[in-house]
Amino acid sequence: MCIRDRIYGEQDIFDPISSYAMSDAAASRTRFCGFLAPQPPQRSEAHVRAALGVADRKLVAVSSGGGADGGPMLRAFLSGLKTREDDSLFAYIVEGPLLPEDERQAARELAAVLPHVRLVPFDADYAAVVRAADVVVGMGGYNSVVEAVSFGKRPVIVPRLPGALEQQLRAEGFARIGLARVVLSELLSPETLWDAIEAELRNTAPLPRSLNLDGANTIASALAQLPVSV
């Protein structure tokens, strides 16, 4: 049993065997373990909404992850929000600690004229906001996508490009089975992003399935079965 042949995830959602044209030998050794469960939030949904002053508005949680290349998504979100004369939304935006300073300033200038928008560079308990949100918007990182879906959200994902295709492949896999909506970066605009957000705000259907979040236990079991060298 070789632990390196274990993959955190589910094959029908994102299959690196086919996506990366793995050899038959490598594929025969590969096992999918389920996803890693996110850390539980520290605050309740009611606590989050009360602390933000959401009241009866819809809460949209937005994060660009680390932020290094999240500026276009943040600008598209805020520019689209600016065109909507709608008092029914509250936007909580995590800019990301690595967001370039010019992008951070541009986002804050857009937000300054908008009601019911909170921008922060980082939130150590963002999972609590995700759980409390009505819609989650983000990029296609493993942790952020799994976190949103594990809390029953169908995230609107803008995969990171240019760069590795992993985020796009993961996002498209989740979207294919109804667990996400995807706005490809080359099609990103205020209109396309907000079309997806508003479609999800209208969507009252539950997620079609849950995720296997037993990855940590599966790997622990596999490790326990490894032969011991003495």
SS class:
alpha/beta
- As laid out across the biggest beta sheet, the strand order is 5-4-3-6-7-8
Order of helices and strands: EHHEHEHEHEHEHEHEHH
Query: Rg to the nearest angstrom?
Result: 19 Å
Fraction of residues in β-strands: 5-15%
Low-confidence stretches: none
The share of residues in helices is 40-55%
Query: Which architecture of the largest domain per CATH?
Result: 3-Layer(aba) Sandwich
Termini separation = 18 Å
Mean pLDDT level: 92
Shape: globular
Give the C-level CATH assignment of the largest domain: Alpha Beta
Q: Compute the number of structural domains.
A: 2
Total strand segments: 8
Could you please describe the fold and organization of this structure?
The structure is a single chain. A 6-stranded parallel sheet has the order 5-4-3-6-7-8, sandwiched between helices. Strands 1-2 form a two-stranded parallel sheet. It is α/β, with parallel strands linked by helices. Helix 3 crosses helix 6, helix 4 packs parallel to helix 5 and helix 4 crosses helix 9. It has 2 domains: 45 residues, no CATH class; 158 residues, Rossmann fold. Helix content is 40%, strand content 12%.
List the helices and strands and how they pair.
Blueprint lengths: L5 E2 L8 H4 L4 H6 L1 E2 L12 H8 L5 E6 L7 H12 L6 E6 L6 H12 L4 E4 L5 H7 L2 E4 L3 H9 L5 E2 L8 H11 L4 E2 L7 H13 L12 H10 L6
Write a concise synopsis of the structure shown:
The chain has 230 residues and is of the alpha/beta class. The protein has ten helices and eight strands. It has two domains: 3-35 and 213-224, no CATH class; 45-202, Glycogen Phosphorylase B (Rossmann fold, 3-Layer(aba) Sandwich).
